[in-house]
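For homework, think about our next protein:
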Amino acid sequence: MTTGSQVATSRQLALALFDDANAEGLPVDTARSDIGFARKNVLIRIVDLGVAARRLIDAAYFIVAQDEKIRDLYDVELDYFKWLMRYASRNNAHLEQVITEAQRALIQATAEAEADGTKPFGSVQLIGRISYVGGRFQFRVPPDLIGIIRGPGKSHWLSLRITSLFTLSYARVMYDHLLPYADEGVTEWFSLDELRAWQGTMGAKAQEFKYFKRDWLTPAVHQINEVSDLHLSFETRNEPGSRKIGRMRFRVERKELAERLLQTHEHAQALYQSLKQEIGLSSSQFNQIASERDTYTDERLEQALERTRFSLKLGKVSKSPAGFFMKALKEGWIVSDAERKMVLIQDELALTDRKQSEAIEQTESRRALQLAAQDVHAQNKVVSEVRQGWDAYENAPPKQREDWRRTYRSSPGGKLTLRRLGIDPSSDLDDEVLRRYPDLRDGFSGYVFSKCRSGKGK
């Protein structure tokens, strides 16, 4: 529930944070303290409104809720209003489209059922006239809505810092509808038609549950769990007597205080994931950080994270990375310039050694390829010479052929081949014997080729 101090100080806090952030060019989601207002539970049924237009309405209602008086016309600095709605673009044409969209949309307000079971219902324009000129932003809100925004009734705290992180329209719609259930922990059973009606206009595919779940429901739940202070899960129920899914309900859990503090803007989201997934901090350790967030700034957290990563790389973390990180955080350990230089030199030396090893491997590879190429060339040359020698033998006259067979038997190579094949050197080497022993024929053909080349056999 919202406290009185939250409501009383929220406008002053927002103005102060805006002054600080504006000087540094920071968006609303980077604010360290929460910015928001006690939004009434009945003001959640906004239909057919995109993410940017919802942010515009949030910013306007925040101003209405925190103003000291009820005004016919609200007038604030244009830059301040843009900052509240996390609008960083300088494209005024787009801003005008967002304004037009907000003015066309309706809010549907409901209340508790009457005694006869009927539920009161009302539909009204979200925001009235809007104009901006000379660095000022002016807008009107329907009087009926001003009474609801500022009046008594059940409410929940709506954080502009959290809602500014949503990029999916249906994620923001679901967050608006499920936030009031955070204290109860579980919702009622919603019909699929009611869930679709939260968004307003949907495509035809959304009428089929598997596409509604794939394209709308699952991405929205994932984004809510990722960027907001809630964690959602859901269950389904079939229609009576049917296998068709007809109803759903959600379990809504508030995240631990420490996790909410670290997950309220995009930069902290990345840091939070590193601490939780990479380093493995426990909820207790997150709570320690959160309790001294003014001391343990993002810069100090990042320094301790870098120190932990650095020591892990050097093999100096022997037990728990989370425990090492917490010690580094508390004692303000950093990575010194000397250590950076040492690692840089080591990396350069290692790179040099690696390049030398690669150069040696490349040289050896080239040499091996050259030898292999030479072997292939030599083998091809031998095959060619054997073929040419045999062709010369077959085309030679009988006397020349007989002379080559006789001289081959008495040559050193011929004797060695005949001995290896177990052939009597004195026996006649006729064509039948040569064809019977392929090795003998190849050796003989090579001998004939050499004789023909030298001209001795001519």
Remarks:
- The chain has three domains: 1-161, 266-335, 341-454.
- The chain has 19 helices and eleven strands.
- Residues 258 and 290 are 5 Å apart (CA to CA).
- The longest helix spans residues 337-395.
